[in-house]
Each structure stands twice: as structure tokens, then as C-alpha cells.
Design brief:
The structure is a homodimer. The first copy, chain A, is an alpha+beta fold. Chain A is globular and about 55 Å long. In chain A, the strands form two sheets. In chain A, strands 8, 9, 10, 11, 12, 13, 14, 15 and 16 form a nine-stranded mixed sheet that branches. Chain A contains eight helices and 16 strands. Chain A starts with a strand and ends with a helix. The relative contact order of chain A is 0.13. In chain A, 28% of the residues lie in helices and 29% in strands. Chain A has two domains: 4-116, Aminotransferase class 4, branched-chain amino acid transferase, N-terminal domain (D-amino Acid Aminotransferase, Chain A, domain 1); 122-282, Alpha-Beta Barrel (D-amino Acid Aminotransferase, Chain A, domain 2), CATH 3.20.10. The longest helix of chain A has 16 residues, at 267-282. Chains A and B meet through strand 3, helix 1, strand 6, strand 7 and helix 5 of A and strand 3, helix 1, strand 6, strand 7 and helix 5 of B. Strand 3 (18-20) of chain A pairs antiparallel with strand 3 (18-20) of chain B, so a sheet runs across the interface.
């Protein structure tokens, strides 16, 4: 079956999904996206993703208020007969005039892609991810650092550095030298039994999975802290992990070739992964 | 006559210019552009623009080596019967798989837009531009700060700040607090008779017009320096100006409501504008 995508109200084969070459998403990266995961056809924390998208759209002046994205997402999942899926919603300002002027864009472009998601096998979770420190810095001095915008090239370039080094992910510092996030995931670490993650002022995209982990920690008796974190605090951490909607909670066991913590997945990481999956199983 | 655009080898009406919604330019801002100005049908410093584009394409791994962009640009200008024109070349990595993987993009997307350019009237040059200092910082810690990439949203947001404040342009500092550039132009200023502009390490797009000004200065007996420049050095400058291919050399006479220099276009600015226009008139 050929893949079906949602584009501006229609469900169409992917090969027919065309947009104007004068879309401001294409010309200027004037757009936003969300990546979500569906389990047995249900998107986990869909409302949270849509709320973040709406908040970000307001920051950028993207008029998406009247769109029924929830229905569009469910329709796309069903059209592709998906159960475990990865979903990407991309919204841009739409087509405008050739002279850069966002006020000439009359209607946003809405694209929804949904495909089968094959999770990493359990062995990968038992082994954990190896990371490198990227040469690319996050810019906490731009509002875009806090939005999942179509200005995503820094992340792709950082991930390329990881691939080139034979690692799974690349960690980016902010311009002050503090930890920000990995190319496609948020970072957590444990110091003296406390769960720590870079705060919003660190130049991060505050992920929905990150938010979920910060909710799950207290009931499990884990104290957590959003913080300015130095790179050496990560190398000396008791344990560490990465989060996003797709990888959930992935142990981080090595940085630039040196073990983080014991060099194996830590006990709080395991506990939070188990709790996260339990939450997924029982619904939100 | 309806506007003709060049898209992937064809000259077509703008309304028919469609690209795949899975273009990595649209999904991730994986692309580059150049803005140029043509005078009487001839693009000023076309070779310099194309060289920069080729250099940037190499950084991003965009395979544009075999494209005859020069011919494509001239064809687009002629198809639209233009004399004084603004030209924008946009090149993206092209269509790829839904799971982010640049290696799945097989062919770049090449778009050329050309439209009539109405220069600012002389009164504007005699009066000069007023600027505000943007809340958005440039990130010298990313390679993108030195490329004209499709990750251009920071610039549009900075320009919006200028518009909201009733100013012509917005000036961005880098993360260290030094001057970087304006939202769509480079900055020059004069201190103790020396022409100064932020250096490449300041997180700037080193513009072709900027490069031309740095070439023109010495024969005119003007010493120049690429430098780390503090904001207060701009407010205390003897004179200042902004450059890009379209505005050429535009006096900067006011910042955040306070005069820069005498609050009128300065003598070196006038001299360089005259020399630039003379160069344009005589060709490269």
C-alpha cells in the first residue's frame, strides 16, 4: 500500500503531496513541527503535543487556531492502517510573495506524515547510547531554541557529527558552555541521587517526554531539578539518559569514548523507563 | 505578464511552481539561498555570489556542482524581461524519506525567483536608516551563522521587531554581546577615521556587498578593520552604514531613538556609496 499523507485537508498518496515553491516554510524555514508516537493506534500525550504546537504557533504568528489537527492525525493513522507509528505534523506559514513579507501569507500549509515505527530492540536499551559532544552550540539567545521550528538544520548537522564518529547521538552545549540538549533528544543525569536536566533558559526544546519524566519522578521518590549543568558534571554523573517521544527513555552510557557513570544503564534510568512504559500502557 | 520562475530546469509560471511536501528544505530548512541585484539585466558580482553558494553547498553536502546556475539566472531574468531586478536563488537538498535522513535525498531542488526591483529613492539615502537593537542573538557557535541558509526565521523575527518599533532594520548582537549584523544587512561603522565591521568569527553572513566595500576602501585612502565591536562603539561612532546587494550602502543614522554620529549620513559613507555605484556602472 502506498503511503498516505495529509496535506491541507486532503488524504493523498505521498507521491502527489506538492506544495508551492513559494511556501515560506521552504523559502525561510517559517514553520513548526511535532514528532509523536502512537501505540496501538493511539498517540501518546497528543493533547500535550497539540498544546505545545499551538503555543509555539502563537509565538510565530502562525494562524492554526481553527484546524482540527486531532482528527487529521487520527485520519492519517487510520488511512495508513497503522498501529505503532511515528507521526510528524509540519505547519508552515504557507505561500507568500517573493519579497520576504510574512503578512503576504494567507493560509498555513499543514502536512501530516505517519509511518510504521519499529522501536529499538531491548538489547539497545540494555546496552545504552554512546554520544559525542557536538561542535555546534545551541543559541539560548533566540526564541527558536525553545520551539520545534523548521529551522532544524543545526540538529541534522549535529547528528551527522554523531554518525561520523560512530555514536548514536550528539550533545550540544549552549553559548555559555552549559549542557543544552542532544540533537534530537533531551538530556537527564543523576548527581548525588538527584535527577537533573537543563532548564528552559539553557536553550532547549522542552520535550513532551522530558515533561512526562519530570512528572513521573516525584511519585517514584526521585527528586528532580532543572538546572545549569556543566559538561564535566555529565561525565561524572552516576547515570544519564536521553528522552524523546520515539526512544522514550534511552540510557546514555558513554560520552566521547569515556563511560558515563558505570558505563551501563543506571537504576533510576531503568525505573523511569519502566514507569514511562507503564504510563503508555495504561494511557495518559 | 505573469511572473516566470525557474524550477529544476524549467521556466514556468509562478502559480505552477510546485515542490514535494517532503522536500528537506521544507521539512528541516535544509537549503541555501542567495539574493542578488541586476542592473540593466546584468547581475552585479554574479560570480562572487555563485562562488559563495558553491562553498556553502560544500559545507552542507548539497550536490550542486554540475548545475549551470549562471545560465539559469540569466534565462529567468530574460523570461521576465527584467532590467533592474532582485534575484533569489534557493537550493535545497530535495525530496527525501519521512524519517530524517539527508542521505535519502537524491536530487537538489533549485528555484530562481526574479522580480522588478524598485530601489529606495534618493531621499531615503539622504535621510538614512533608523535601527533598533534586536532581542534575538546571533549564534557564532553554529556553522549556519556563516551561511545564507534556509534557516532564516531568526532574521524575519528580528525584522519584525524593527517594523513593530517603526524602524528600518534590527541589529543583532552575538552571544558574547558583540555586534554581529542587521537582520538582512551587514554593519559598518567609523571610529577615529577607521572603517570597522564585525569579523567572520562574530557570527555573520559575510555578504558580497560587505566584501566589495572592504575592497573599495583602501584605494579611497580609507583604512579598514574586521573587528569585535561593542554596541556602545556603534552608538559613539562617527558614522555608520548598512550593506546588502539591494540597498547597496545605506546610512545608519539612529539607533534605539538616539542619533549615531551626527544623526546624518557621514562623509565616508557617501564616498563609499558613490564608489560602489561607480563600480556597478562600470561593471565588476
Amino acid at each position: 500500500m502506498s503511503e498516505i499523507v495529509y496535506l491541507n485537508g486532503s488524504l493523498i498518496p505521498r507521491s502527489q503531496a506538492q506544495i508551492s515553491a513559494l511556501d515560506y516554510g521552504f523559502l525561510y524555514g517559517y514553520g513548526l513541527f511535532e514528532t509523536m508516537r502512537a501505540y496501538e493506534g493511539q498517540v501518546f500525550r497528543l493533547d500535550n503535543h497539540l498544546r505545545r504546537l499551538a503555543d509555539s504557533a502563537e509565538v510565530l504568528g502562525l494562524p492554526i487556531g481553527t484546524l482540527d489537527l486531532k482528527k487529521a492525525i487520527m485520519d492519517t493513522i487510520q488511512a495508513n492502517q497503522l498501529s505503532d507509528a511515528r507521526i510528524r505534523v509540519a505547519i508552515s506559514l504557507g505561500e507568500g510573495e517573493t519579497v520576504p513579507d510574512p503578512s503576504t501569507c494567507k493560509k498555513p500549509t499543514v502536512l501530516i506524515l505517519a509511518g510504521d515505527y519499529q522501536p529499538y530492540p531491548e538489547e539497545v536499551y540494555q546496552k545504552g547510547f554512546r554520544v559525542v559532544v557536538s561542535s555546534i552550540h545551541r543559541n539560548s539567545g533566540s526564541p527558536l531554541s525553545r520551539l520545534k521550528s523548521a529551522n532544524y538544520l543545526d540538529s541534522l548537522l549535529a547528528r551527522k557529527e554523531a554518525r561520523t564518529a560512530g555514536a548514536n547521538e550528539a550533545i550540544c552545549l549552549n553559548e555559555k558552555g552549559f549542557l543544552a540538549e542532544a540533537s534530537m533528544s533531551n538530556i537527564f543525569l543523576v548527581t548525588n541521587g538527584i535527577l537533573r536536566t537543563p532548564g528552559q533558559e539553557s536553550g532547549i526544546l522542552p520535550g513532551i517526554t522530558r515533561e512526562t519524566i519530570l512528572e513521573l519522578a516525584p511519585p517514584l521518590g526521585i527528586n528532580s531539578l532543572e538546572d545549569n549543568i556543566r559538561l564535566d558534571e555529565l561525565s561524572q554523573a552516576q547515570e544519564a539518559f536521553l528522552t524523546n517521544s520515539l526512544i522514550e527513555v534511552m540510557p546514555l552510557i558513554e560520552m566521547d569514548g569515556k563511560p558515563v557513570g558505570s558505563g551501563t544503564p543506571g537504576p533510576l534510568t531503568q525505573k523511569l523507563l519502566t514507569a514511562y512504559r507503564e504510563l503508555v500502557r495504561t494511557g495518559e
